């Protein structure tokens, strides 16, 4: 077996805070953060009544001037005649042109 090397990171916690106190969903997790070109922080996560339920959506919030916006529904998993599916594992990405992308999975579970 190959040797596994553990590396210590030298990260400094800048700030710790909650994005919201009350939310329009019972459960949420799998958050992702991104710093925008003008220094704001954009957050996304999935939330609903319970992971895997068809009401699980992608939500976003942005921190502008030190204050988080109320959670905004970004994607709801409604694919019209194909049905409604839970959404999973959002990932925010900013390319070299500062264009922001939000990737996420839609389907009955994150493996299919």
Estimated radius of gyration? 17 Å
Number of helices: 0
Largest sheet: 5 strands, antiparallel
Please give the alpha-carbon distance between the first and last residues: 32 Å
Helix content: under 10%
Mean pLDDT: 91
* H/E element sequence: EEEEEEE
Question: SS-based structural class?
Answer: mainly beta
* Low-pLDDT segments, ≥5 res: none
Strand content: 35-45%
The count of DSSP E runs of length 2 or more, i.e. the number of strands, is 7
Number of domains: 1
Principal-axes geometry comes out as globular
Task: Briefly summarize what is shown.
The chain is mainly beta and 112 residues long.
Helix and strand topology:
Blueprint: E1 27-35, E2 41-48, E3 57-64, E4 67-68, E5 72-75, E6 87-94, E7 100-106
